[in-house]
């Protein structure tokens, strides 16, 4: 899996705080959502419960995994916010990695939910927030490929 691994390998952890190996079979063919967000951001805190609900309902069915990419100002806020999330996280200490990801994928504000093909690393949808909230909350057209 050259795609998501080349951007994040060695820096992503699961809920048990175990390092994720994107070369494991369970990650093949997945759509990954890079969720750029922060506890201090009111719109982010408003969207996160909807994303948690979508993920719990459709994550397995849609072969979808999310990675929390924090813009929090300190690790305490990061940890507090992550308690509300059932998915993976980019290590908070990787501030430069977070900045490089934001620059590479042209993330200019938060919240942003960028969907990428886990195998190729190609962008599928540059920001899926409207789809989750309003346009397709049941994920009928997931992963919302951009033409």
Automatic annotation (TrEMBL):
Matching Gene3D superfamilies: Glutaredoxin
Residues annotated as domain Thioredoxin: 1-147
UniProt entry tagged with the keyword Membrane: yes
Keyword tRNA processing: no
TM region(s), chain numbering: 32-52
Cellular component terms per the entry's GO annotation: nucleus
Keyword entries, A-Z: Membrane, Transmembrane, Transmembrane helix
Signal peptide start-end: none
UniProt cross-references to SUPFAM superfamilies, sorted A to Z: Thioredoxin-like
MF terms (GO), sorted A to Z: thioredoxin-disulfide reductase (NADPH) activity
Matches recorded under PROSITE patterns: THIOREDOXIN_2
BP terms from Gene Ontology: negative regulation of protein ubiquitination; negative regulation of Wnt signaling pathway
InterPro entries to which the protein is assigned, alphabetical: Thioredoxin-like_fold, Thioredoxin-like_sf, Thioredoxin_domain
Domain of life from the UniProt record: Eukaryota
Name this protein carries in UniProt: Thioredoxin domain-containing protein
Species annotation: Adineta ricciae (Rotifer)
């Amino acid at each position: 899996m050259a795609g998501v691994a080349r951007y994040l390998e060695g820096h992503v952890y699961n809920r048990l705080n175990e390092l994720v190996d994107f070369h494991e079979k369970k990650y093949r063919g997945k759509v990954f959502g890079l969720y750029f967000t922060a506890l201090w951001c009111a719109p982010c805190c408003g969207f996160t419960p909807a994303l948690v609900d979508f993920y719990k309902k459709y994550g397995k069915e849609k072969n979808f995994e999310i990675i929390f990419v924090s813009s929090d100002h300190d690790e305490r806020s990061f940890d507090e916010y992550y308690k509300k999330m059932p998915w993976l996280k980019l290590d908070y200490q990787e501030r430069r990695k977070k900045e490089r990801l934001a620059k590479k994928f042209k993330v200019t504000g938060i919240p942003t939910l960028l969907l990428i093909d886990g195998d190729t690393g190609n962008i599928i949808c540059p920001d899926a927030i409207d789809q989750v909230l309003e346009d397709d909350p049941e994920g009928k057209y997931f992963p919302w490929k951009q033409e």
